[in-house]
Amino acid sequence: MRPLGVALLLAVAAPASSIAQQIGTRIEVFGNGTLIGGLAPVNAASGSHIAPHGGFRVDVGVQARRLGFGVGGRYWQLVPTNEYGGQGADFFFFGEWQPGDDTRTALRAAWGYGFDDFDSGHGPERPTVTSEGYMWSVGIRRQVVAPFDTRMLLTADLVVPTPSAGTIGRRRPVIEIGVGLRYSEFQRIWPLP
Question: Which residues contact 98 (CB under 8 A, 6 or more apart)?
Answer without folding.
Answer: 63, 65, 66, 67, 68, 105, 106
